[in-house]
TrEMBL record:
Signal peptide: none annotated. InterPro entries: Znf_ribbon. Residues 1-25 form the Putative zinc-ribbon domain. This is Zinc-ribbon domain-containing protein. The keyword Phosphoprotein does not apply. Residues 30-83 are annotated as: Disordered. Residues 45-83 have a biased composition (Polar residues). Pfam families: Zn_ribbon_3.
Length: 304
């Protein structure tokens, strides 16, 4: 067994990260911890025996000593808000440090089974999408300002960014759901959707670096469309391959043929993507018509 040095939780000997606080447990020696635990138990037993022997002596002490202790306890102050803030900031630092360590491990060994917090996978997907979509928002706003219609386009762009973010998350959830269904069909059991997402994102987490690169390029200007298109294609391919390998490359005995699971995954993804594409086309046609009418109205108002 391993004892987490951060929160004190007991983990199995083969666990590399604490499942409660995410602390790194790889450098902890099991044998030294077991010896420490035994010594603590022996001291605890001795303390209990000594307390039993000295119980009568403690009862025989004057009541004045108890009164002094009561008076001293009155002067003890509760922890201040400053200490609480320091504790919260320390916990936040540990959380960020553990997440960054998880990201570094994913870049060094993408397909290694690293245990992380349940929110790591979904938070990383959301961060990737936000970086890309905000990059397009600032790029479009810069172009609109150049034509003198930045105020109008900015309002529609903000609404469009939120909706495109939702469409992107739905599209990625479609891929995840399809491969998760195929994984369940092949092996008959899973470790849960959260663990599946964490492993898939861990395998494709180079996307976090590429999404940051796309954001920087788009903010600098709209003249790098070809480069951005190539990087976006790589991001999509890595995301797709990461979950495909997670679904089909499980290191356990399958109960059904993997090829059928692969086909089932793609059928689910294909149907869901077609429905999503129809919704996206309808949305962008409505958004384009609204923007076109608003721009024309502003031009005619200026001429009149």
């Amino acid at each position: 067994m391993k004892k987490c040095p951060n929160c004190g939780a007991l983990m199995k000997s083969n666990v590399n990260f604490c499942t409660k606080c995410g602390a790194d447990l790889r450098q902890i020696d099991n044998s030294s911890q077991e010896a420490t635990a035994k010594s603590e138990d022996s001291h605890q037993i001795k303390g209990q025996s000594n307390s039993g022997e000295n119980f009568e002596q403690n009862q025989a002490k004057p009541n004045a000593a108890n009164n002094e202790q009561a008076q001293e306890s009155q002067f003890q102050q509760a922890p201040t808000s400053v200490n609480t803030q320091e504790t919260n900031s320390g916990r936040l630092y540990v959380v960020i440090q553990n997440y960054l360590q998880w990201c570094v491990d994913s870049w060094k060994r993408p397909f290694s089974a690293v245990i992380g917090e349940s929110w790591y996978g979904w938070a990383t997907i959301l961060l990737d999408n936000l970086l890309i979509i905000l990059g397009f928002y600032f790029c479009l706003k810069s172009v609109a300002n150049g034509y003198g219609v930045g105020r109008i386009v900015s309002g529609f762009s903000l609404i469009g960014v939120i909706r495109v973010l939702l469409f992107a998350l739905l599209f990625e959830a479609t891929i995840i759901g399809g491969y998760y269904a195929g994984h369940y069909f092949i092996y008959g059991k899973t470790d849960g959707l959260i663990a599946f997402v964490n492993r898939g994102v861990h395998a494709s987490n180079f996307n976090l670096i590429l999404s940051s690169l796309v954001f920087i390029v788009l903010v600098l200007g709209p003249g790098n469309g070809t480069f951005v298109s190539v990087v976006l294609f790589i991001i999509f391919s890595l995301f797709y391959m990461g979950f495909q390998l997670t679904a089909l490359g499980e290191n356990r005995q399958p109960i059904r043929d993997k090829m059928y699971g692969y086909i089932i995954s793609h059928l689910i993804i294909l149907v869901a993507v077609l429905i999503l594409l129809i919704a996206v086309i309808i949305f962008f046609s409505i958004l384009y018509n609204s923007m076109h009418q608003s721009i024309l109205y502003q031009i005619f108002s200026t001429l009149n």
